[in-house]
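STRUCTURE:
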């Protein structure tokens, strides 16, 4: 998705340069001397691929031969190619000519790999990843930007991205999406520029083999002339194994009771392999080379080890340690510091998930000593969806006794909600009612945001549209906007975010959103955000192109929910 021009261009440049020079050295840059040799270069690449043809080629009729407006005016997500279904064991090849504005690196092709064809609000639709042609992308929890490899760093010149943008105009692109039965999708793009330069990019991503996936191209200030689409058998029937290189343990208990046999508790172990991928392990997968003596009081050390490869075969051992204290049995617990949020707005009939940031529970042990109790050792009751103040039970279950205390939480009923309380709503999976905004008038929403806060985009989104539902623009509070109404050089974005702490402050924020119909076929969107800790920020989008005679607004979300307070 496209970040507005005013979003720290220097930061984006640094990010792209880092990605460039971490590219794979195995991807060689090719260049031929004369433009007249271009067709022979394309033909030679095609011939090499045809050499793999086993006779099982399935050609696919292309319905949409031109994707996006030919003047490159189609903004992000404004147009998609045909949707191509890929079964496990099949390789999809798309051939097309790429065109873009040349203004930004991302004004070229974008590939989306999803569960099914896109439909606005479809709860069964989700994205495995979106891969951009400029070595960038995003996706679900398995996405890893470090697995994007390319040869762009060899383009030369003082500004390789300026060269990249020039080479991509009119480039003949062959995009391979190989859904291996090993449970991985391998993407390789080969772009032949009009002067014969060959640019290569690749990426791989874990995908369940229980069902087919869907691939499609997305425009972003770009358009494509589709030439061919066909399926071949997979090239990857097995993959190289990877050794473990490190292991990390989180959420391990810092204290256990005297005589306890459970020194692991709710701990989690994650192993990292040589290809950069990770895997969460169960306790049964691990070896404990040093088991703590819990029959005596004091500080103890636990040594955790893992000795298997990515494919589960015996391999080199990696290990780590964590420390804990063996203490007397717990006699009492009490809340000595309330959490950051003690008042919640609600609207649905679902219990909310309590935010424990700032919560401190102190334990009193059998010898009258005291210490902070790790929250992972506690069981915290759910907050019921009823107005008023509720005493939520917090329980510690020890080896010899169970002790409890309470935490008062106040619930206030709002006037509406968008998104599921369990944070399961995907992008635009729930949308508020459409409200018209007449000439020269403004519409203001006041709401509370509750978010997983795992990514910057897990927040509220303004959707500008026409009365018939035709989308104009999405404007998100983390300085991203896209759609036909977003125009580079015309739409202005302003914010005072601290991107180092942006995600951490999302949950429990109070937000006031104002959308103004300027009456001159432009609209402004302003977010005024107050974090739960009192920190204040703003986000503005000025000069969004709209039809002032037919401007409507709604609120949607992604992996969060909002409750309207007014």
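SEQUENCE:
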């Amino acid at each position: 998705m496209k970040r507005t021009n005013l979003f720290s261009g220097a930061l984006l440049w640094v990010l792209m340069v880092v990605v460039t020079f971490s590219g794979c050295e195995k991807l060689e840059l090719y260049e031929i001397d004369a433009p007249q040799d271009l067709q022979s270069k394309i033909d030679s690449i095609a011939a090499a691929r045809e050499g793999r043809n086993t006779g099982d080629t399935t050609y696919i009729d292309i319905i949409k031969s031109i994707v996006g407006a030919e003047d490159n005016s189609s903004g992000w997500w404004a147009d998609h190619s045909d949707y191509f279904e890929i079964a496990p064991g099949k390789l999809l090849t798309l051939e097309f000519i790429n065109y873009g504005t040349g203004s930004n690196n991302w004004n070229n092709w974008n590939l989306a790999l999803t569960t099914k064809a896109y439909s606005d609000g479809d709860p069964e639709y989700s994205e495995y990843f979106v891969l951009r042609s400029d070595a960038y992308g995003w996706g679900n929890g398995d996405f890893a930007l470090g697995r994007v490899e390319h040869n762009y760093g060899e383009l030369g010149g003082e500004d390789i991205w300026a060269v990249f943008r020039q080479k991509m105009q009119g480039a003949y692109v062959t995009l391979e999406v190989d859904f291996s039965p090993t449970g991985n999708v391998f993407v390789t793009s080969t772009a032949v520029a009009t002067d014969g330069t060959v640019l290569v990019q690749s990426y791989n991503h874990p995908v369940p083999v229980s069902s087919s996936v869907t691939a499609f191209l997305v425009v972003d200030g770009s358009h494509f002339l589709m030439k061919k689409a066909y399926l071949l058998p997979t090239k990857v029937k097995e993959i190289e194994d990877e050794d473990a290189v490190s292991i990390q343990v989180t959420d391990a208990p810092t204290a256990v009771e005297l005589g306890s046999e459970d020194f692991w508790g709710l701990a989690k172990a994650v192993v990292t392999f040589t290809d950069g991928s990770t895997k969460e392990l169960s306790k049964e997968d691990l070896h404990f080379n040093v088991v703590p003596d819990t029959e005596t009081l004091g500080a103890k050390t636990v040594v955790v080890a893992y000795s298997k490869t990515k494919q589960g075969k015996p391999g080199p051992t990696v290990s780590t340690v964590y420390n804990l204290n063996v203490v007397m049995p717990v006699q009492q617990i009490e809340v000595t510091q309330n959490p950051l949020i003690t008042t919640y707005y609600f609207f649905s009939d679902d219990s909310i998930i309590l935010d424990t940031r700032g919560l401190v529970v102190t334990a009193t042990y059998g010898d009258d000593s005291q210490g902070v109790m790790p929250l992972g050792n506690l069981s915290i009751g759910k907050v019921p969806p009823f107005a008023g103040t509720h005493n939520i039970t917090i329980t510690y279950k020890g080896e010899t006794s169970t002790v409890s205390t309470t935490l008062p939480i106040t619930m206030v009923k709002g006037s509406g909600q968008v998104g599921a309380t369990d944070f399961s709503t995907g992008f635009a999976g729930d949308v508020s009612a459409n409200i018209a905004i007449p000439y020269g008038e403004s519409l203001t929403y006041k709401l509370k945001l509750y978010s997983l806060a795992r990514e910057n985009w897990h927040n509220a989104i303004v959707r500008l549209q026409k009365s018939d539902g035709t989308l104009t623009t999405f404007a998100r509070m983390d300085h991203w906007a896209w759609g036909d109404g977003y125009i580079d050089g015309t739409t202005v974005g302003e914010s005072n975010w601290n991107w180092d702490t942006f995600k951490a402050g999302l949950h429990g924020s109070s937000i006031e959103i104002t959308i103004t119909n300027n009456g001159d076929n432009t609209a402004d969107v302003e977010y005024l955000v107050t974090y739960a800790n009192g920190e204040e920020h703003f986000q503005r989008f000025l000069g969004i192109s709209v039809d002032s005679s037919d401007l409507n607004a709604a609120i949607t979300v992604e992996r969060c929910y909002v409750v309207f307070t007014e």
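REMARK: DSSP finds three helices and 39 strands in the chain.
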